[in-house]
Amino acid sequence: MSKFRVRYQTFEIDDLDIHVRSLRDRQQFSDDENIAKNLGISSAQWPLFGIVWSSGEVLARLMARQDIVGKRILEVGCGVGLASLVLNQRSADISATDYHPEVESFLKINASLNSGDEIPFEQSDWNDLDTSLGKFDLIIGSDLLYEVEHIELLSQFIELHAKPECEVIVVDPGRGNHAKFSNAMVKLGFQHSQRKLDEEEQSHTSFKGRVLNYIRCKPLSG
To answer: pLDDT digit string (tens) for 150-205?
Structure first.
């Protein structure tokens, strides 16, 4: 039986009401069988997956208006999966991945809370070069660049799962690692742009970071 406490929230995102089960606060912890510990997740890190951060809400709002037609989409480091839930409600082809052992159960419950289809999920480390996720047209994530050492791991994980023509959207709160990550993505053939939220977007949040965008197009035949 889970020893952590949860809360239920409803996010009004455009014309969608997204219901989310998340951890009550950052003091929650439950790892009696040391599953997370054996994965290298400390007690301080353990609850971070289960909080809806402002960067995750920004990503979800972007996904409410994202072009999804004909696109296979992957959310990396999905946590409770707010952006994935938005895309699922829009009938997008969305899959999700995260390293934390509790994420899959939260994602299943949250999809059910919204009367949506179960979202395909795979627990995966960015070091894992043998996943069954496949290739995607659009890869998204929020607050992924915690540490400098994550830059190479994340860029290579994205490359592993990106189609030759692919777009990547990362909402970054400004931990100081986005420039090096952008350089790594450029080396993989992506064109890079970034922006701050516009006035209308900013009205929903106190988020002060950047939306990082990477696009790789098929080379012109000639």
So the answer is: 899 999 999 999 999 999 999 999 988 999 999 999 999 999 999 999 999 999 89
- How far is the C-alpha of 184 from the C-alpha of 189, rounded, in Å? 9
Query: Phi, psi at residue 127, to the nearest 5°?
Result: -80, -15
Output the CA–CA distances (angstroms, integers) from residue 182 to 24, 26, 39, 154, in the order listed: 34, 30, 28, 11
Distance (Å) of CA 212 to CA 79, 167, 185, 193, 208: 19, 11, 11, 6, 13
Report how far residue 114's alpha carbon sits from residue 214's, in angstroms, rounded to the nearest whole number: 30
Bridge partners for 146 per DSSP: none
Q: Which amino acid is at 15?
A: D
d(CA 32, CA 11): 32
Give the span between the Cα atoms of 28 and 149, in whole angstroms: 27
d(CA 78, CA 99): 9
Query: Which two three-digit tokens encode residue 186?
Result: 């450029």
pLDDT at 18 over 90: yes
**Alpha helices, H only, 16-165:** 35-38, 54-63, 82-89, 103-113, 150-161
Tens of pLDDT, residues 185-194: 999 999 999 9
Residue 219: pLDDT band (50, 70, 90) is low
The first and second tokens of residue 188, run together, are 């993989």
